[in-house]
Fold this protein.
Amino acid sequence: MNAIYDFVSGPLCWIAFIVFIGGSAWRLYSMYNEAKKKDVNSLAYMDKHYALRSILNWLIPFRALGWKENPGMTVATFLFHICLILTPLFLLGHIVLLEQNLGISYPALPDGLADFMTIIVIAACVYFYWRRKSQPDVKFLTTRKDWFALCVAFLPFFTGFLAYHGIGGDKFMTILHILAGELMLVAIPFTRLSHMIFGLFSRAYMGSEFGGIRRVQDW
Amino acid sequence: MKFDRKVEDAGLMRGVAALTPDKIEKTIKAVLDGETGAKLKMYAETCVRCGMCSQACHFYVSHDNDPTYSPAGKVHQTMSRILETKGRLDPEEIYKIAQIAYTECNLCKRCVHYCPLGIDTGYIMLVVRRICYKLGVVPQYIHDTTNSHSATYNQMWIKDDEWVDSLQWQEDEARDEFPDLRIPVDKEGAEIMYSVIAPEPKFRTHLIYQAAAIMHQAGVDWTMPSSPGWDNSDLAMFSGDNEIMGRNKRRHFECAMDLKAKRIVMGECGHAFRSIYDMGNRWLGWKMYPIEVVHAVEFYWELISSGKIKIKEKIKEPVTIQDPCNIIRGRGLYEASRKVAAALCENIVEMTPNGVHNYCCAAGGGIINCGPPFKNTRTTGNRAKADQIKATGVKLCIVPCHNCHGGLEDINHYYKLGIEMKFFGDLIYQLMEKPEA
Ligand code: SF4
Ligand code: SF4
Ligand code: SF4
């Protein structure tokens, strides 16, 4: 068990981060190159001001028409994304690991709060699951890729929650949790989760087109 | 899944009859490799299938939230199929794909306001249409229109002499009312070249009459070209025939440049306006139009605000306004349209939603040009618009777009709304001071 733990928390972790960062950079770079070759006119319309304007307006809950008309989804998706990003970054356990291995340290979230945020992520996943199963328009759109992405996002938090509460064997659950986290990192550049890298750019383009060509807001 | 709403169309049927899976695969590959790139890939990959855009689409709302009509649902049945099979599809599925792309999406881009990731369903549908066009699977009527553009540079098979005849005829008619009125043809160096869409000389000639009356009354230095390029419409851009689209637009701009006009004013049309700021220019490699172009709505505001046109008296009965997507969501003319409306009417009742969030009329994006076989698609597909108009309780509606007129006319009839529709030009002509007349 200890050997496995050392492996997943050591070399495998390095590999996961390399794949995540390298993969994301490579995907962005190759997309950009392809855009330079094939989407010249769209690149020409890119406009920093309008791109930023669009991104900022979409970051405010209930501001865009789409948010207003999907209130349940708005609450769920904002909470989900905020907790999904902040919890792992500011979890005391993670920061301690960072300090031991890289000597980097910064303030952490109180454990109780982090636990609560983890529960929010899990609850949001359950909501997304329910939506995909029961709302006809979402059900119609759902493919295996979407189920996979949902699982990949759900697992690290679920296993983290169990490990923190000592359910299912401390070491064992921790190993599962690390594996799930690594799976998520590796999956980001190559699955639906890539909206994390590309979403900003598609939004930025739409903002530029609506602001610059169409002279209107896009929210 | 079974496609239970197949509409028989001669063009689509003839098109798929000539296809084999091999041909389909080859053509699709050529379009995807040659004409699409990161943008399409990014949209296809980034869409998280959340369904937040469903409510955006009048087709979805009007069909009691039928998932197959949601924006992403339509992409799911068309572009996603094309990508996941790498183009290996059978002809029957191409029929379905063509029907969805040509007749169940107006390319109105309302859904952009709903998608957090900024996915442009209108763009995706245009690429699907481009593929269908390359496959020779195009609804008969719009294909014929494109052929007309190709043969005559106008969408209605109007011959060059018929065009000039129509202008002279309207000039003649108008001189009864305004003895000095002229429709100056091919005048070099005029301030303004006025261009219209071909249905005006074909069946809405009174609009040319009215435009001439307004220009005359305002003392505008204007001209209309006698040569091809006078028609600013462009249905090729909706049929997927980008080559003809580009040729059309180049001719339109060159026409104005040949005449050394300072700028172009376009009549009250939505899609023609889109073709000059968004699509035709882009295909030709111009970031924006090479000569200034102004839409009638903006132009009217210039005339009214500068006092060149004076309004005798305003309409008193309540009036509502259709916001055509191609000039409002497409080019920010909301303010201008409201200023003109306020100058003409005392009581404006807004539709909800309106402005940049307005619902399309379901005629746009070339659907009305797909002709009678798809009339029901447009009427049953836009109960949302009928409800919107009904809720205003108003009987007079200003509609500053030709296609919207056609579309709303059918909706008006189908849902028995009993509304009357007017262009801004109709009202200005009716309400302006005409000292000579
Ligand atoms: S019709 Fe308009 S709202 Fe509906 S899918 Fe097409 S672009 Fe989007
Ligand atoms: S297009 Fe946008 S709103 Fe619609 S399902 Fe995809 S990500 Fe969601
Ligand atoms: S016809 Fe009118 S409402 Fe419909 S797409 Fe064109 S401009 Fe938009």
Observations:
- Chain A touches chain B through 54 residues (CB under 8 Å).
- The pocket of iron/sulfur cluster (ligand 1) is lined by residues B 56-57, 59, 71, 74, 105-111, 121-122, 360 (CB under 6 Å).
